[in-house]
């Protein structure tokens, strides 16, 4: 139902990337309502699932986050090889999940350096101040807030010459020049 409502206002779903936890309802809703959109997993939620395999191995989770945020394929591959050598079960689970679901550098859409679903937490904090308003006022507030956020992201994306954000592009450029 939520995806159907969203589909009425999203004009280009083929350009959309939805980041979520592993909730199957989200995946199923996406497949039926937004079959051309991409789906990524929240790095934080994925890390929590991986911790089940390596509770006392902070080094493995550190490698996972470094791979997730890697800006170059060669850097990502190197970190994944290292991970496989120290904890093959976590490596294999990540490959099974699909590297394009969590890796910044392998994402098929512009991810704008958004790796987690902290946006949901941001939204919750914004709604605290209006929670006693009538539902129509709350709905209008949410529409306006999301419209501003998406507009700002779209404007930033149009000015971005690559699939990376300006900050990420500068970071990669600086690292390439220093090596």
From TrEMBL:
Taxonomic superkingdom: Eukaryota
Any GO BP annotation: DNA transposition
Keyword DNA-binding in annotation: yes
Molecular-function annotations in GO: DNA binding; transposase activity
UniProtKB keywords: DNA recombination, DNA-binding, Transposition
Pfam families with a match to the protein in the record: Transposase_mut
InterPro entries xref list: Transposase_mutator
PANTHER family tied to this protein: MUTATOR TRANSPOSASE MUDRA PROTEIN, POLYPROTEIN, PUTATIVE-RELATED
Protein name from the UniProt record: MULE transposase domain-containing protein
Species: Dipteronia dyeriana
